[in-house]
Structures are given as C-alpha cells and as structure tokens.
C-alpha cells in the first residue's frame, strides 16, 4: 500500500552525517523536535546525511505526505516517514501544513467528537487528510471538502496528546 506513495531510489552505502549538537527538544529553528510537517512538493529527496553530497535513499512523490522531524542541522531536517524510514531533507521541501494518513482499516468519520454522534462518511486506510484540529482523543479532518471527526489513534501524523487548532 505505501509503495504507491513512495518511490525507492537506488540505494548506496550511507555516509556518516556530522555530529548534531543542541537541545533534544528544540531544533536550530527554535521549533519543537519531534514535530510533524508535510511534504511541500510532489518530488522530495530523502538523503542519507545532511547535505547534497549524501546519496538519495528515497524519492517521495506525494505532495502533502506527513513526515516527522526528529532532528535539525542547519538547513537540513532529519525526518521519519510512516514506514519508519529515516533520512535528511532540505527544509525547503517541507511545509508546516498539518496532514495525516488514515491507518489500519476503513474508518468511520463522525459529525462530532463522540462515538454516539452521526457517522458522516467512511475513509480508506492510506487516505491523506488535512488536520483541522485535535483535542484529547479526537481530530477534525478534511478531505476533498468533506470533514468530520476521527479518533486520533486512527491517524499517523499527530503526536499523542498534541493540541492542534
């Protein structure tokens, strides 16, 4: 399923990145680490180290795909994707727009943040949604003009307990 959203580039042996210094909870940007962001482009390169001289390990071909920033080094962000792959990406290839991927099986979206509220639509696993807000166990998401609430635990792209919106 995830092979449809990711394209594997020819793998080459990884070079060791330079040591990273700094606070483990704040990156050089001053933003929290870890944090979720999304891909800004339909073509984004993941490298084995923080620099253009490092080989490309993945080529992402899905704009808006959520990734988790786990470290920062200058203009480079070490990210982790939904499959657990990690590598380095230039910060110009990512955006602060919050998106998430529906996980598991077909999920029900509800009119309100309550299992007793009316179901409004069903959404397939792997679907990309825009995160509008999250509070406690629920997130309000939007996909193609349709919006509703889904349990946070059914999404990849939001931190446990994170408040959005």
Give a summary of the structure in a few sentences.
With 165 residues, the chain is an all-beta fold.
Features:
mainly beta; five-stranded antiparallel β-sheet; 165 residues; single chain; 15 strands; 44% strand
Helix/strand class:
mainly beta
**Oligomerization category of the chains in this entry:** single chain
Query: Major sheet: size, sense and barrel closure?
Result: 5 strands, antiparallel
User: How much helix, percentage-wise, in residues?
Assistant: under 10%
Strand content: 35-45%
Cα shape: elongated
Uncertain runs are: 1-23
Helical region count? Answer: 0
Average residue pLDDT = 88
> Gyration radius, to the nearest Å?
17 Å
Number of strands: 15
Order of helices and strands: EEEEEEEEEEEEEEE
Taking the alpha carbons of the first and last residues, their distance comes to 30 Å
Q: How are the strands of the largest sheet arranged?
A: 7-6-5-2-8
How does this structure look, described?
0% of the residues lie in helices and 44% in strands. With 165 residues, the protein is an all-beta fold. The protein has a 5-stranded antiparallel sheet with strand order 7-6-5-2-8, with no helix packed on it. Residues 1-23 have low confidence and may be disordered.
Q: Helix and strand layout, with pairings?
A:
Blueprint: E1 6-8, E2 35-39, E3 44-47, E4 56-60, E5 66-73, E6 76-80, E7 86-90, E8 94-95, E9 99-102, E10 107-110, E11 119-123, E12 128-135, E13 138-143, E14 146-151, E15 155-156
Antiparallel strand pairs: 1-4, 2-5, 2-8, 3-4, 5-6, 6-7, 9-12, 9-15, 10-11, 12-13, 13-14
């Amino acid at each position: 399923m995830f092979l449809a959203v990711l394209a594997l580039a020819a793998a080459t042996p990884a070079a060791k990145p330079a040591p990273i210094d700094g606070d483990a909870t704040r990156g050089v940007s001053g933003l929290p680490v870890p944090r979720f962001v999304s891909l800004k482009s339909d073509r984004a390169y993941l490298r084995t180290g923080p620099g253009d001289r490092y080989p490309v390990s993945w080529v992402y071909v899905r704009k808006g795909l959520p990734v988790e920033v786990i470290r920062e080094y200058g203009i480079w962000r070490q990210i982790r994707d939904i499959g657990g792959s990690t590598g380095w990406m230039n910060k110009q290839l990512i955006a602060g727009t919050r998106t998430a991927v529906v996980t598991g099986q077909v999920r029900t979206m509800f009119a309100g943040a309550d299992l007793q509220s009316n179901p409004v639509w069903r959404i397939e696993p792997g679907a990309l949604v825009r995160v509008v807000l999250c509070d406690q166990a629920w997130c309000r998401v939007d996909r193609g003009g349709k919006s509703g609430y889904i349990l946070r635990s059914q999404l990849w792209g939001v931190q446990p307990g994170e408040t959005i919106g």
